[in-house]
Every structure is written in structure tokens, then in C-alpha cells.
Amino acid sequence: MNQINRMQFLSQAGITMTALAFLKQCSFAFPRQMEKNKTANKDQYTVFEEPILNAILYGITAPNPHNTQAWKFKIVNPEEMLLYVDETRLLPITDPSTRQIHIGQGTFLECLAIGASSMGYEARFTFFPEGSYAKKDIGKKPIAKIKLVPQRNGLDVRFPILSKANSQDSLFPFLEKRRTVRSQYEGDLLQKKELDSILEDAKPKHSELISILEENGIQVVIRQAMDAMRIETLNVRTADESRIWFRFNDKEIQTKRDGIALPDQAVTGFQRWMLESFFMGPEPEKFHNKTGVSQFLAAYEKKIQSAKGILIWKTQSNGFEDWVKVGRDYVRFQLAAEKNGFVIHPMSQIVQEYQEMDELRKSFEAQFQIGKQQKIQMIARIGRSEYKYFTPRRELKSMLI
Fold first, then answer.
1. 40 has pLDDT over 50
2. What is the pLDDT of residues 7-19, one digit of tens each?
3. pTM
4. Which residues pair with 81 in a beta bridge?
5. Would 18 be classed as within a structural domain?
6. Interaxial angle between packed helices 215-234 and 290-304, expressed in degrees from 0 to 180 and rounded to the nearest 10
7. Is residue 4 part of a domain?
8. Is residue 232 located within the same domain as residue 363?
9. Under a CB-based contact definition with an 8 Å cutoff, are residues 152 and 137 in contact?
């Protein structure tokens, strides 16, 4: 099918409505964008006639590294699109291989698929549809072609809305609650039966999950994760990448609608005011202020020491497709954890592939007997927390090409 003229499609789709306007009407993203707005219509879950646009809006709720939202979309027709990495939103210092950025492509695809299921569609993916894909192709060649196929009892139908109840992914109700929680965790250690319940809901397809559920083993990994955080935070070269993506006040958060900020680090109240007012700022000398950095690291260590379990995602190979697919597994686990009353916080600094981390990463991989072709893709802590903060998302129109 021929590609639709971009301006023609935007006009037909009413894309001049911003993502924020959509989210005001859409229950799944209500907490993320409209925390204080209690007037959202809980029954309305589509706003565009073209299902692909609605599906994208589910997809962009996905977790992604530094909240860079490194996604761009080419609409093919009302039910098909191409997903590309946005090459202007990479993390070249701490993610030189772009592995984490591609994991974020997988989280997007899985959230899109789960959201599409609520509309009665199956999202079918063709990975790397233009063939060979290398680092030089980032932003130029698509990661995936997405086609939405109406479903009813497993069969294509003309009127997909009739099949919503039959086709909806069991994790869909938890898209609206999904958030990464970096606060202190509460309660007991994660039990094996609780992990089994999460895995039954998550249904991982590509990666192997290694779990550490005993306190001594948990704290060994926590100490290593803390060492990795110190390397990244105390090294100006690597920490400066976080400065670029940091949003220093509410105005920046709501204007730029991307990046990282103190509230998503569970730093609130007086501590947030002190750090933002006196110890942090966009200027390098202020951002790397030793007092502010020390306070951040001390608070971070206290929070991660409260972990109730450690999760490690491992793959047998380590290519672009592995990265995308482990992203799908990761976000399904996060949603399944939410369903079972748990939250997770990725602590993957120790497996990053830059020079300053090499020694610690290799030691960590040896500890888990990681083979030459294998890779630890993600590490996270798990626990219980009532802390809620939903990072914003950019307007959809800014992501279309």
C-alpha cells in the first residue's frame, strides 16, 4: 500500500490535537499526564479514527532510558507504521553501543501491542524490515514495521470493536499504573511463589530471568550497583550526560516533557527544594557540586538497600534484535509486577559498556558466569512502594516523520 502524504494524514487524523489533549480523555494515561485532573472520561479510550495513532499513544507510555523518548514514526496507512530510533536522542557516553536505546524500542513495541489489544487489534511486528541493520543505520532504517490486524476469537474481522473483551491483553489495565519507582521499598522480601505469579502473567519469551531472593545475595548486588552508580556519578564525563537530560524544576519538566528530574528519583519536599535551590542547576559547575552529589548518592544508597529482591535479564546473544526483544520482556514483567502489587527500579549502570565501567562490568559478568556470546541486559530491584510519579511524554506530532 502506498505511503500516505504526511500532511494529508495529519489533517485527516486531526493530529493538531496534542498528545496531552488526548490523554485528558484517555484512562490509561490519566495519572501520567493529568495527575490533578479528575474530569477525564474513563470510558473513552480512542480519540482518532486511525487506530495506528491511538496505538502509538499507548506505546509512548513505555519506560525508556533517561526518558529520552528516542522514538520516531512514519505512518504508512491508518493501520500500519514504521518505528525508527530518533538519532538526535541517544546517550553516546553511557550507552555507546545504543543497547539501552534499543531496549527502549522494545518497551515501546510491547506497550503498543498491549494497548492495541484493548481496541480489538493484534499488533504484528516485522523486525528490521529493510534487512541488515548496523549502528550507522540508526535513524535511517526502521526498527520494525507494525501492522494492526483486527481480531475476533483469533480471526480477522471488519468490526474490531466487537472483540475488545476477547482480545484484550491481561496486562492492559496496568498500563495506566505503570511507573518506575526509585523510592525506598517496604514490606517483606519477594517470595518464590510471588515471583512465579508475576512470571505467569509476564510470559517472557526471549530472555532468561535470574532472581536473587535472599537478603545476603541481594545486598551483595546492591553494593556492586552502588559502586557502579558512584563511577557514573563522580565521573564528570559520564555524569554530564545526565546533566544534559536533567530537568531542574516543574516548568522545565512540563515544557520539555522528557528527561529526568528529582521527582522521578523519589526526591521530594524539602530535600528537593534544597537541591534544586542551592546545589543543582544546568551549569556544569553547579550540577557537579560535590555537596549536592554526595547528598544524592547517600539518598540513593539508602533507597536501593531496601530492595526486596534482585532481577537480572540475560540473553544468549547480544545483537540489536536481542535488545529490542528483551525490552518487550522487561516491560511485561514491570506490568505484571504492578498487577501483583510490586514495583521495580532498573539499576543497570554496572552492565554499561563504557571505559570507566569496564572493570566492574567484567567482574560482575564473571560472577554470573556469563558466556562470551551472552549478555546481562538489565538489572532491577523489586519491592513494594506507594510512591507515585508519572513522567511526562512529548506531543505525538513531534515524533512523526
1. no
2. 444 444 444 333 3
3. 0.89
4. 75, 146
5. no
6. 160
7. no
8. yes
9. no
Task: State the CATH number of the domain containing residue 230.
Answer: 3.40.109
397 within a domain of the structure (yes/no): no
Domain that holds residue 341: 192-383
Q: Give me the amino acid identity at 141.
A: K
Domain-terminating residue out of 179, 206, 236: 179
Banded model confidence at residue 154, pLDDT cuts 50, 70, 90:
low
Q: Which three cell numbers stand for residue 65?
A: 532510558
pLDDT number for residue 42: 31
Nearest to 156 by CA among 168, 148, 165: 148
Q: Are residues 256 and 375 in the same domain?
A: yes
Residue 48's pLDDT band (cuts 50, 70, 90)? confident
Residues 317, 196: contact at Cβ < 8 Å?
A: no
Domain count, the chain: 2
Q: Which residues, 6 or more positions from 147, have their beta carbon under 8 angstroms from its beta carbon? A: 79, 80, 123, 124, 126
CB-count exposure of residue 302 (10 Å: 0-12, 13-18, 19+): exposed
The Cα 25–Cα 15 span in angstroms is 15
**Residue 148 shares a structural domain with residue 210:** no
Of 368, 383, 296, 305, residue with least CA distance to 337: 383
